[in-house]
Amino acid sequence: MNKHILISWIGANDLKAVENVQSEVSSESLGPLASTLSERVFDSVELIYNYPKKRVAPYIKWLKARCKAPITATHVTLTSPTNFGEIYEQVNSRLDELTAHKTELSVLLSPGTPAMQAVWILLGKTRYPCAFIQSSKEQGVQDVDIPFQLAAEYIPAAKQLNAKRINKLADTSAPLNAAFDNIVTKNPKMLKLKQQAQILAEREVPVLIYGESGTGKELFSRAIHNASKRAKKPFIPINCGAIPADLVDSVLFGHKKGAFTGATADKPGVFEQANGGTLFLDEFGELEPQVQVRLLRVLQDGTFTPIGGTNEQKVNVRLVTATHRNLMEKVAEGSFREDLFYRIAVGVLHLPPIREREGDLTLLAKQLLANLAEEDESLKDKKISPDALNIILAHAWRGNVRELQSTLLRAALWCQGDEITAADLRQALFQMPENGSGREGVLSHDVSQGIDLDELIGDLTRHYVPMAFDAAKGVKKEAARLLGLENHQTLDNRMTKYGITKP
Ligand SMILES: Nc1ncnc2c1ncn2[C@@H]1O[C@H](COP(=O)(O)OP(=O)(O)OP(=O)(O)O)[C@@H](O)[C@H]1O
After folding, report:
1. How many domains does the chain have?
2. Mind listing the pLDDT tens digit for each residue in 117-137?
3. Cβ of 500 less than 6 Å from ligand 1
4. What ligand 1 atom has the least distance to the C-alpha of 209?
5. 239, 257, 316, 401: least surrounded by Cβ within 10 Å?
6. Does the CB atom of residue 187 touch ligand 1 within 6 A?
7. Where are the beta strands (DSSP E) in 71-120?
8. Are residues 131 and 164 located together in one domain of the fold?
9. Does one domain contain both 334 and 286?
10. What residues does the Sigma-54 factor interaction domain cover (predicted)?
11. Which of 322, 352, 382 is the C-terminal boundary of a domain?
12. Is the pTM of this model over 0.80?
C-alpha cells in the first residue's frame, strides 16, 4: 500500500489557534491543520512554513501531541509570502522529493496565502497529481473537487509561444544563423520575424506561418529547417491545397501495393519521407476535417498506418504549417479542429504582405534581379532604371514577392539594352491581368466575399497614371487630360491619395 502523506503550509490561522489556546482567549478553532488531522488519518504529515522558527516551534510541539502520525516541518525562506517564483520552487522541490517514492499525496489548501494555494493547484493538477482538502470553521474538513484537467485542456494552449513571449526573446540581438541570409529585408518588422524564426528553429516546436501568397512562407520554413538540428535531414514541402481530395491520405501517409486501383507499388507518404527532418505543409487550412483527425494522431504519438497497410509506422517529424486563412476563425466556425490548432500553433509567425514592408521594395527588386542573373547568364548586366523603380514602388504587388519576381523576369527578358526601363516594366506588369492589376483582375473579384473598392480603384489609378505621364512626355496637364481628369490638381489629389510619386 502506498504511504498516504498530507502536505500543507502552516498558516496564520494555525498559529493563532494555539496562541489563542495558550492565552486562553478562545479554544473554539483548532485552525485548518489541526482540524484536518483530528478528522483524517495519514501515514505522515509534511509541513512547510516561512514564519520565524521561534514562533512556529510551540505550534509544532502542540500539534505533535495531538496527532499520531509523524510530522516533519521544514522552514523555508521567502522574500514575501506572495512571491510566486519562490513559492513554486520550494513546493516543487518538496513534492519532487516526496514523490520519488510511491506515495499517495493529499494537499491541504487552506493554510497560507492565495499565491500558495494557486501553486498547489498548479502543481497538483499537472506534475504531481494529488487529492485536495480544505478546512474552514464554517464548512469543516472537505475534499475539494477541481473539475478541470489542466494538463489535458490547458497546457497545449499554455505551451504556445505567444507573440509577446517570442517578441521578448527576439529582443536579444543574437546574430542570425546564415540559414536566414536569403530572406532579404531591412524592414524592422521582418528583421524581428527573422529573429523570432531563429528562436523557433532552435526549439523543436511546431511552427505555424500566416501570410498571403508569395510572402515567403516556404522561404521561412526552409530557413527554420536549415537553422535547426534537423538541417542535414530531409525538408519536404507539400501544398495541401493542391492535392486532389481522394489522394490526400496517400500523399500524406503513403500506400501499399494493391491498396487501390493504380497502386502498383508501395509508395511512402510525405511523413515517412520527412522522417528525422521537417515537413512543410502549405495551405494547411484547406485540409478536410476527416484528414485533420488522422493528422492529429500522427502529431500526438508519431504513428500512422499507410493505406492498405496493417502495421503502424512511427516517425519523428517536425511540422511547419502555413496558411493564408485565419485558422482561429475556422476553429470558431467549426471547420478546423481546435485540438489540432493548438498542436500546430505553438510558434506562430505572421508574415506581412509586401505593401506593409516599408523600405523593402527597392532592396528586394535588386536582389531578385541579381538572383535571376545567377540563373541566367544573359541577364547579368541588367539594371533597373530609376523610372522603372518608381513604378515598382507605386505598384500594389498583390502577389507579393512572387509577383515582383516574375514581373522582373519578364521585364528583364523583354528589355533590349542593359537597363530595364519604365516601359519594359509596365509591359511586364500588363501581362498579369489575373493578379488584379489588369482589367480582368479588377473585374473578377467575388463581391460576396467582400471587396475593397477603393483599393481596386487605387490599383487602376496606379496602373494608368504612370502610363499617362509616359504618353504625355511628363507633362502633368496633358497626363490629366489623357486620363479624363478635370485638371492637373485633380491628378495631384489622386496621386497623393493612392501614394503615386511623379514618374
Ligand atoms: N524576403 C524575401 N527575400 C528574398 N526572396 C523572397 C522573400 N520573400 C519571398 N521571396 C521569394 O519569393 C518567392 C515566393 O516565396 P515563397 O514561396 O516562400 O512564398 P509563400 O508565402 O510560400 O507563397 P505561397 O503561399 O503562394 O506558396 C520565392 O521564390 C522566394 O524565394
Report:
1. 3
2. 999 998 888 878 899 999 988
3. no
4. 21
5. 257
6. no
7. 71-75, 103-108
8. no
9. yes
10. 183-413
11. 352
12. no
